Recover the amino acids of this structure.
């Protein structure tokens, strides 16, 4: 007899059988089906296989076909325990819910606005926000992929308060730098509640105590969730909770990362689900699969069908609808310095060799090693001095000659351009993906009041000049602070600078499209006057890895635009020269397998 159970302790489906079934023909088929479907399945012993419940739910129909084909019937050759049966019925309802969602009738806007007014929702929704909320409020699980500044948080709260019963709670999983926005929007939208979100942080014991107090509104980071998934899951199982994923592209890695596994492990527990991202597929179409799986784990999704599957359940407000003035993009192309060119030639040969190895072996460790090498190459092109701290660098004499040439053409250009803008009274935002660049540039421009933000700058009170919020306030309010230097990994989300700054300089970029798009949106977002000119200036070195980064970012942005049917995602064309935490290096550099292939092709071609 095959037995199917739900193991609540780790939210896994458990399939077991007796010694007599060990050679049954259906067992090999079920085993192969499970292990082909997910990397997170485990053969626990000779008679037990487990897999995450959300993965099991998406296999439900295929397993049912196997059961029918081999005559496995409940009560005789198949046993389904009560907890598993209850969840399977819930999965069936959820699958039916998705099928209904494809033809769901949106909430009538007048009814939406009437109920929101009745419950004291103070914010007046824009026409686009009302349109979006009318659709997602009619769905059991949904997505809002509106661009930054379009008011996704307001949409999410409007949806929650429209749908939720008085005893239902809200858990938001978000990056830490988005926490303040949720409190601010709660006060703006429902001021009479005088409610704030309880931060679930401080370790397992403290979080357990906070949950014992049963708060209605809760916030937790993706990283913290991964440390206490059992506590959060148990709380979601005991109570009626809506779970929203803010910046949901953070789970794009799926079961490969602990943070994504923790979020997906909750997917069968909430009474309502919403995912939110302005850049839902920063690398490739596959990025959507875990996000859709969180919404509808019962519906199998692949790279080939996920865009079509998610289309009926997402909403999006694009930049054109917001009426934003267009961005002026400038590409500053500079030659490498002579000795820098010589050392770059040697370094790129070594990276090309590593890329060839990564493409043939496709081993995670090799991939990460290549990510570090690519980061080093990007660093060297942006600022050769960053390599001076590397002990045992392979070409010390040549590096010494490069350092004797000075700061490097890109860095010199950015420093000079920042001073020109400051002299004309303009504030300027400078982006670099590398912490030492961020600090170095800020130090060199200290006379312009330069402040900086990177991952090592703690969030805190805006009255403290050393915190992230304090530095942002200085840049906003102090006329003597003319420059902000920032790292996209730390400041591409939850920062609004568009009211005071209209010129951004990119010393370097990586393959991480989410970082790039969201960093642009810091100064180009809703609220700009119609005649405001916004300039994005990208600094590149000719014949370097910078050109491959530009090509790959353009491809990824175009892919996302096509998937979301949104031309506003396509950046204005920059003339081509005719001749992305858990793993910070990997996250920042944002390399995908296709990026490695493109990089290998480019480096090999340059070498020949």
């Amino acid at each position: 007899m095959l037995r199917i159970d739900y193991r609540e302790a780790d939210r896994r489906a458990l399939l077991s059988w007796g010694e007599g079934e060990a050679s049954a023909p259906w067992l090999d088929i079920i085993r192969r089906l499970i292990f082909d479907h997910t990397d997170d399945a485990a053969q626990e012993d000779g008679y037990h296989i487990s897999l995450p419940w959300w993965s099991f739910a998406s296999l439900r129909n295929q397993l049912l076909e196997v059961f029918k084909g081999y005559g496995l019937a409940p009560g005789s050759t198949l046993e389904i325990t009560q907890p598993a049966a209850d969840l399977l019925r819930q999965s069936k309802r959820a699958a039916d819910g998705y099928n209904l969602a494809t033809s769901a009738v949106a909430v009538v806007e007048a009814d939406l606005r009437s109920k929101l007014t009745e419950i004291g929702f103070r914010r007046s929704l824009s026409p686009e926000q009302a349109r979006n909320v009318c659709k997602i409020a009619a769905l059991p699980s949904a997505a809002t992929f509106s661009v930054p500044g379009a008011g996704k948080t307001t949409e999410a709260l409007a949806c929650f308060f429209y749908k939720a019963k008085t005893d239902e709670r809200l858990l938001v999983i978000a990056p830490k730098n988005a926490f303040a926005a949720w409190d601010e929007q709660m006060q703006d939208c429902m001021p009479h509640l005088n409610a704030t979100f309880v931060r679930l942080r401080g370790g397992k014991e403290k979080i357990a105590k906070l949950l014992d107090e049963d708060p209605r509104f809760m916030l937790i980071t993706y990283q913290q969730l991964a440390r206490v998934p059992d506590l959060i899951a148990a709380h979601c199982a005991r109570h009626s909770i809506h779970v929203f994923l803010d910046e949901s592209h953070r789970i794009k890695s799926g079961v490969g990362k602990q943070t994504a596994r923790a979020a997906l492990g909750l997917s069968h527990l909430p009474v309502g689900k919403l995912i939110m991202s302005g850049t839902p597929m920063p690398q490739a179409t596959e990025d959507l699969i875990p996000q859709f799986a969180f919404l509808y784990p019962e519906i199998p999704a692949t790279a080939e069908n996920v865009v079509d599957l998610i289309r009926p359940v997402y909403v999006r407000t694009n930049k054109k609808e917001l009426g934003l003035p267009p961005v002026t993009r400038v590409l500053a192309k500079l030659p490498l310095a002579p000795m820098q060119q010589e050392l770059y030639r040697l370094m790129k040969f070594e990276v090309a060799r590593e890329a060839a190895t990564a493409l043939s072996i496709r081993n995670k460790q090799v991939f990460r090693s290549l990510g570090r090498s690519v980061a080093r190459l990007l660093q060297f092109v942006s600022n050769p001095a960053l390599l001076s701290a590397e002990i045992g660098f392979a070409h010390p004499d040549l590096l010494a000659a490069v350092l004797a040439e000075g700061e490097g053409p890109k860095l010199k250009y950015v420093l000079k351009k920042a001073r020109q803008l400051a002299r004309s009274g303009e504030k300027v935002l400078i982006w670099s993906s590398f912490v030492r660049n961020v600090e170095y540039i800020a130090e060199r421009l200290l006379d312009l009041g330069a402040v900086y933000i990177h991952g090592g700058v703690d969030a805190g009170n805006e009255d403290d000049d050393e915190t992230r919020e304090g530095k942002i306030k200085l840049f906003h309010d102090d006329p003597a602070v003319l420059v902000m230097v920032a790292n996209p990994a730390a400041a591409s989300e939850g920062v609004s600078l568009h009211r005071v700054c209209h010129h951004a300089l990119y010393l370097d970029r990586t393959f991480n499209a989410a970082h790039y798009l969201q960093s642009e949106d810091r100064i180009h977002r809703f609220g700009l006057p119609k005649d405001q000119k916004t300039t994005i200036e990208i600094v590149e070195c000719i014949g370097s890895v910078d050109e491959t980064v530009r090509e790959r970012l353009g491809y990824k942005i175009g892919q996302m635009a096509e998937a979301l049917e949104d031309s506003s995602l396509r950046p204005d064309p920059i003339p081509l020269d005719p001749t992305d935490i858990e793993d910070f290096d990997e996250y920042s550099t944002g390399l995908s397998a296709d990026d490695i292939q493109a990089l290998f092709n480019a480096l090999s071609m340059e070498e020949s």
User: Anything to note?
Assistant: Residues 572-588 have pLDDT under 50 and may be disordered.
